[in-house]
Amino acid sequence: MRRSRMTLAGQFLVLQLVIVALVVLTVGVLSFAQHGEQLQRTENRRALSAAENLAGNATVRMLVPTALPGGSAPLAAVGETVRTVSGSDVAVLMRPDRTVLASSRPAEVGDPLHDDRPEVPAARSWVGPVAGSAVAAEVPVLDDEGALVGVARVERELPHVTERLTLASPSLLVYVGLATTIGVIGSTMLARRVKRQTLGLEPTEIAGLVEHREALLHGIREGVVALDTAGRVTLLNDAGRRLLALPPDAVGRPLAELTADPELREALTEDATRDRLVVVGPRLLTLNRMPVRSHGAVIGSVTTMRDRTEMKALERALDTSRRTTGTLRAQTHEFANHLHTISGLLQLEEYDEAVRFVEGVSRHRDTLYTQVTARISDPPIAALLIAKDSLAAERGARLVLAEESAVARVDEDLSRDLVTVVGNLVDNALDAVAGAPEKLVAVELTEDEEAVTVRVHDSGPGIEATAERLFRSGYSTKGSDQAGGRGYGLALVRLVCRRRGGDVAVHNDDGAVFTARLGKREVAA
Predict the structure, then answer these.
(1) In this protein, which residues make up the domain named Histidine kinase (predicted)?
(2) What is the pLDDT of residues 35-80, one digit of tens each?
(3) Res 391 pLDDT > 50
(4) Looking at the predicted structure, is the pLDDT value of residue 138 above 50?
(5) 114 φ, ψ (degrees, to nearest 5)
(6) How does the average pLDDT of the chain come out, rounded?
(7) How far apart are CA 327 and CA 169, in angstroms?
(8) In degrees to the nearest 10, what's the CA dihedral of 289, 294, 297, 300?
(9) Is residue 356 situated within a structural domain?
(10) In a domain, 337, yes or no
């Protein structure tokens, strides 16, 4: 796994310092500009005040109308006094035509002064920036009658940018140092808090773990689905979505919104489930559910699932073969009894009775084989029915194949599925008639162009449970000492039927009547 060259704390520190630097720079620039504007306003007020003092001086008002450029020492003295007292840099007295009469810059005396004012009447005061880093204020000089006789001008130099930075640098350094210290402390505390919440992992390590988890989750064949306490799907891998037939956007949605199957919802939301078989569409799934805890509190659950469809079908096929073997043993026992009977009759020299007994047994067997093979052309199904007849006889019951039965030879897959369905339904029917006065099981197999229909009618007490509960995985009306040993025969029958595009139903009619329909073509999962 690649590691970052810089730790999480270092990344936070660098980011914080960059942010602090940007903030300090922005604030410094804005503060510097604001300070410059404030300084200019202050200097404007000072320049305007000095110019007003100069223009309002009685000596200036009296001498300006008749003064010659450079020829009035009192005017020059008054101007220099005002400049010195106000701390200004330049003081100028001019005629209305801007001819300089007295100035702190002797070279300007006698020459017209450049008018750098905006369009402002000569009889009005003005203050503002001028060429260079300076501000100037001009105030009209009026005689006693209020007539314009001259103009007083005062200029003040503004501090240079370097000077202003030099003045502001101590405070700026304090601000930068304080902001940097706060940023370093804050970023260190934030990094420690984040590392505690991420169990000490760096961001690249967290990203690597997430990628690794996603690869593992979607790479396994078993389905995995996780729910939170509210029943919302929080995690689902590809196998789980396929097995449960859920949409691609299932993560984040409530389970009740994704499936209407109450058995599946119960299996995914009830307490810890171990190796529970659930029929989901055409599949038989084994579910294992465990609660997920964090700091002692349950925060959800995770369920793993495996597809047991083919395995369970194989188990039922083997079980059918085992029962068939048992039936053949019963037939062997029955034949042995017949031979003993014949031997006894011969020893008693009851030869006519022995002949009649042999003819009766032979006639019964021939009739049974003829009836079955004439109506059922598929050998596995015919063999199963003959074997079940012997099993019924051993239990004191009678198995009858309806005259309407007619099934031609079918393909191997359908034949295997029919053996599973017929075997389970007949076994259940024989169990149901065990305590009935008349122990009769009627079987009818018919076919059309699209499907084969199996109908099994017993003379038992009938079915009390609902059809949905009866075909539910794990439900059984018979006890069993083995966990999971019963309750899956009818569920498997329904699974096989639905996988072939059909279904199974049950109703009562002087006993239970099961009707299963299997399509001749298996439906793709």
Answers:
(1) 418-522
(2) 778 888 888 899 889 888 988 888 888 888 888 888 778 888 988 8
(3) yes
(4) yes
(5) -60, 130
(6) 79
(7) 107
(8) -40
(9) no
(10) no
| Tally of structural domains, the chain | 3
Contacts with 413 (C-beta within 8 Å, 6 or more apart), sequence order? 522
Token representation of residue 303:
């369920």
* Domain residue limits at 272: 222-310
Type and span of the H or E element at 142: strand 134-142
Dist CA 491 CA 2 (whole Å): 51
Q: How far apart are CA 143 and CA 439, in angstroms?
A: 144
Is residue 296 located within the same domain as residue 424? Answer: no
Closest CA to 454 of 487, 491, 426, 434: 426
How far is Cα 37 from Cα 3, in angstroms, rounded to an integer?
A: 51
pLDDT at 43: 85
User: What is the DSSP code (8-state) at residue 435?
Assistant: T
In which band, very low, low, confident or very high, does the pLDDT at 23 lie, cut at 50, 70 and 90? confident
CATH number of the domain that 441 lies in? 3.30.565.10
What type of residue sits at position 1? M
Same domain flag for 370 and 491:
yes
The pTM of this model reads 0.47
**Closest by CA position to 423, among listed 315, 330, 335, 282:** 315
354: left (phi over 0), alpha (psi -120 to 50) or beta: alpha
State the burial class of residue 70 (Cβ atoms within 10 Å of its Cβ: 0-12, 13-18, 19+).
middle
Q: What is the mean pLDDT of residues 263-289?
A: 76
- Residues 68 and 95: their CA atoms lie apart, in Å, by 10
pLDDT bucket at 328, cuts 50 / 70 / 90: low
Per-residue pLDDT at 457: 93
Quick one: tokens of 162?
């370097």
For residues 375 and 306, membership in a common domain is answered with: no
Clarify whether residues 156 and 244 are in a common domain.
no
Contact partners, residue 18, CB within 8 Å, separation at least 6: none
Amino acid at 124: R
Q: Which helix (H) or strand (E) holds 359?
A: helix 351-375
| Cross-strand pairs, 280 | 283
pLDDT of 478: 52
Domain end marker among 273, 293, 310:
310
Residue 487, domain member (yes or no): yes
Q: Could you report the per-residue pLDDT of 82-126, keeping only the tens digit for each?
A: 989 888 889 999 888 888 888 888 888 889 888 877 777 767 888
- Structure confidence at residue 443 (pLDDT): 92
Is 128 among the domain residues? yes
